[in-house]
């Protein structure tokens, strides 16, 4: 049985719901067989899905097994350094396409996470083989792509999914899967989704497995590792400068098996989305939480730091 992510993943460019002008432009590039493109967008914009849709459209009429060897996929997690680009990629580009009247394709996901030396070698590949090979890339941070690559690829910006589109997809899935979400709780649900389609679909799959009416209590239980009600209580204690009770509350969460990082990550999301705190206070607190997350991630994680964290946060509220 497919997960909801696979089940409801767009299969074609039309399904993806791109702006008409962007959709038409991509179709034109496919028609003229000039797909040297760099897609730019946020992590949840759907860049990887668009790449898959383009490949299906480009090799339309052929089964996936027929054209798999005509494509090489690269990403930052697989990066083997300069020699890989000089040898394997070069060898791939030099061999002929196995699909008649169609070029081979080099796909690089997260190009901005690949070091600049490897990007330079990749740029040389584009110069030498662009007439016989299509180069399709994606990135989140355009500033990390060297200028010489930017000038050689068509840059297409993919906007982050908006609330209207999220609502449409949510309605479609809840209708098809017969998931009953209380209308009054939808605002709370979308707050947990943080404008991310992937997060929303994963939560909807949880609701499907739960197989009962979904209300705010259920949403608070299923959509977060630590219930928001606990952080509501913590916020009141912090505002009242009750440092001892605040520390005891956090230690209680820690003793339930949550790591310090778990607690800080959930508290970060809570502070970002809560209506119980002014924007001014949020702007003071959020950088401090991020600082602690960075320290625990790169240096150490110790339970005693929760007490120091509370002591410093109280001074900011």
TrEMBL record:
It holds the Pfam family AAA. Keywords: ATP-binding, DNA replication, Nucleotide-binding. Residues 33-162 form the AAA+ ATPase domain. GO terms for biological process: DNA repair; DNA-templated DNA replication. GO terms for molecular function: ATP binding; ATP hydrolysis activity; DNA binding; DNA clamp loader activity. The keyword Nucleotide-binding applies. One of its GO terms (cellular component) is DNA replication factor C complex. The keyword Nucleotide-binding applies. PANTHER family: REPLICATION FACTOR C / DNA POLYMERASE III GAMMA-TAU SUBUNIT, REPLICATION FACTOR C SUBUNIT 4. This is AAA+ ATPase domain-containing protein. It comes from viral metagenome.
